[in-house]
C-alpha cells in the first residue's frame, strides 16, 4: 500500500492538471457520477496521508490506491480504469485498481492536516496529544493509526521503532515523555527521508529493519512477527529495542524453562 510520501510524489506529478477543465470522465468505479464531472475545473490537487484528493467546485474525488492501485498520466494500461479524466488537448489521467469516492468540496472541514506526516500544517503538539490519549495502545498500532500519523505505513513503523530503539509491543503510556516526543519527531523525520530516497529510487537500500534478517547494530537475527490489532509484519531486535514495560515472564515450573512473549522466528 503506498504510504504518504508516495502520494506526495503522485500529487507533484499531477500538478499540471490543476486549473484545467475536465472534458471527459469515465471508469468502472461504482457510485461516481461521471457525467457530473465533465465541465468542472480542477481547483486543487491535494493529499492527506494515503488519500489523493481532486478538488472540484461541487465535489471532491478521494482516491485510495489500496494494496495494488496505480495511475498513469497520458498513458493507459491494458485494463479498464476505475477513473479516467480527459482534457481538451488530449491529455488524460487514469487510475487503476483503486477506491474512488466522492466527498463534499470543502476538504478543510473533513481533514485534519495537522496530523499528516507530510503536510506543511503538521503540528507535533497536536500529534503528541493524540498519541498520549491512547496510553494502552501498542506502539506498533500507534505508528499505523491514521488519526495520529496520517500517511505512515508498515515501513514507517519498522524503521522508526528501530531508530528509537523501542520494541513494537511497548505501550504508548509506558514510554517516557522524552521517548514519546522522540517517537513523534522521528515519524516526521522519516517521512522526508522516505520521500527523498523514493525519488532517488534507493528507498530499499536504506531500510535498516523492514524485511531484514540481521540487526545492523547487534549482528543477531531480527525477530519477525505479526503483532498488534493490525497484525502487520514487524521486524525488530530483542536486544537493542527495549520493551516498555518489560515483557511479563511466565513463572518457572518444575522441569520447565522461563518463557516470555513469543514471536515468530526470523525468516
From TrEMBL:
Residues 248-267 are annotated as: Disordered. InterPro entries: FPG_cat (IPR012319), FPG_N (IPR035937), H2TH_FPG (IPR015886), Ribosomal_uS13-like_H2TH (IPR010979). One of its GO terms (molecular function) is endonuclease activity. Keywords: DNA damage, DNA repair, DNA-binding, Endonuclease, Glycosidase, Hydrolase, Lyase, Multifunctional enzyme, Nuclease. Residues 2-94 form the Formamidopyrimidine-DNA glycosylase catalytic domain. SMART domains: Fapy_DNA_glyco (SM00898), H2TH (SM01232). CDD domains: BaFpgNei_N_2. It catalyses: Hydrolysis of DNA containing ring-opened 7-methylguanine residues, releasing 2,6-diamino-4-hydroxy-5-(N-methyl)formamidopyrimidine. Residues 257-267 have a biased composition (Polar residues). It comes from the Bacteria. Belongs to the FPG family. This is Endonuclease. It comes from Duganella dendranthematis.
